[in-house]
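Justification of resources, computational component.

The compute hours requested in this renewal are based largely on the per-chain cost of generating structure records like the one below. Each record pairs the submitted sequence with a full structure-token output. That output is archived, and it is also reused by downstream analysis tasks.
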Amino acid sequence: MPISKTSEPKSGPLERYVSVLETVVSSPDGLTTRELETMLGLPKTTINRILLALTSSDLLEPGRRRGAFSLGSRFAHILQADTRWIELASKRLLKTLAEESGETCFIARLYGVTIRSVVMESPDASVGVYVTPGYILPPNATATGKLLTAMQEPSLRDAILQTELKGLTQRTITDRTQLLQEYQKIRQQGYAVENGEQVRGLFTIACPIILSEGQPPIYAVGMTGPAERMAGQPLPLLVDKLRQTAAEFASVFAPNGRSKM
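The structure output for this chain reads:
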């Protein structure tokens, strides 16, 4: 029996469009019409009408799974500029990584010449305070700060380093020549490590999120926790977990998962 319009949730047209986009954002593999109907409680005719409009505007497009829809090229650009959408897209991935590792996991972003934490999932509140969303991550004392600075073009790297290189602990790198050597090492190995450089006893690893091949990354995923616990684990294993999460995160932004790591 056809579902009448009166069975639709009491929300305006714009809210329904946003609801579809938010639901697809949280599902990297895309969603089918039937899955969207079930998850949103909307009639098939309404879902089809919304999908037609969103695909016509390049906000959604056919996904990898048969009959599924994923983010389109236009919405991928919106995602990269809007931290609210980033939270939606990354929360599940960070939560999974935090639960598997038992450590605080977070995403940082380069804004102009400043690097800040964007979103985090933490099983340990005492550690999470150092990567609370909005927290500034120094380019000489944090894993994500060093990583994102190291991977920029020389002119932008120099602009980032116009800031004062403060010594936060005895291990903080404050010498510019030594820091540039550290950046070179980071570029070669593809990840960064911080061991008590920002906060005594804190250990952090960071990997870049490559949204467009050949372009310097503006996002990084990090994992942080007590040094006595994290430093005792095999570093390659932790780096591999971060790289897998970074690849999954990038696939959310790239239409049909075309992003390459």
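The beta strands are 31-32, 60-62, 68-71, 104-111, 114-121, 192-195, 202-209, 219-226. The chain has two domains: 5-71, 78-257.
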